[in-house]
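RECORD TYPE: inverse folding
INPUT: structure tokens
STRUCTURE:
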């Protein structure tokens, strides 16, 4: 069973940037996307500090964010890597399955991946994620290298959006349209 301890949850730096971007998009009427809290059950509580020091996850979470962008239902997860590789074991089977089912219902699923050492954010399409996961079955490594990623999906802060994932979504939708033509 997964646990949480006083070190806190990993990835909060990226989540802060995504949350600020979500607030910016909402203020400008571009998107309504919310963080889905992960339900925890506290085990130990520091009364003096008024904080939880030990807990366990009540159940598996799905994705970090869900919402709608100009009529398009979206869900995505935010992941960080301190190196130039991202370990695919950080995408849990239940998360991938939820994203797959979300796609089957007409939604758009993606991963926001932050390479903290480089301060680069990347929009990974569901199709690209599926391809990386599929290749593991063919004996490929269980990670993604920074240099394998597509330049056009790297996101640079602009116009008040710190992680401008609408740019990635626009490219993603454009490629989906090309695939159906």
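DESIGNED SEQUENCE:
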């Amino acid at each position: 069973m997964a646990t949480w301890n006083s070190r806190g949850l990993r990835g909060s730096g990226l989540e802060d940037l995504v949350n600020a971007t979500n607030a910016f998009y909402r203020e400008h009427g571009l998107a309504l996307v919310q963080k889905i809290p992960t339900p925890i059950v506290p085990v130990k509580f520091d009364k003096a500090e008024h904080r939880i020091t030990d807990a366990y996850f009540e159940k598996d979470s799905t994705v970090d964010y869900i919402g709608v962008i100009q009529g398009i239902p979206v869900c995505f997860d935010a992941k960080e890597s301190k190196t130039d590789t991202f370990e695919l074991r950080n995408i849990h089977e239940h998360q991938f399955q939820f994203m797959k089912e979300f796609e089957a219902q007409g939604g758009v699923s993606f991963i926001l991946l932050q390479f903290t050492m480089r301060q680069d954010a990347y929009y990974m399409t569901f199709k690209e994620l599926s391809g990386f996961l599929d290749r593991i079955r063919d004996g490929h490594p269980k990670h993604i290298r920074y240099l394998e990623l597509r330049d056009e999906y790297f996101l640079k802060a602009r116009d008040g959006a710190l992680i401008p994932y609408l740019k990635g979504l626009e490219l993603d939708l454009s490629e989906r349209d090309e695939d159906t033509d």
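NOTES: Residues 1-11 have pLDDT under 50 and may be disordered.
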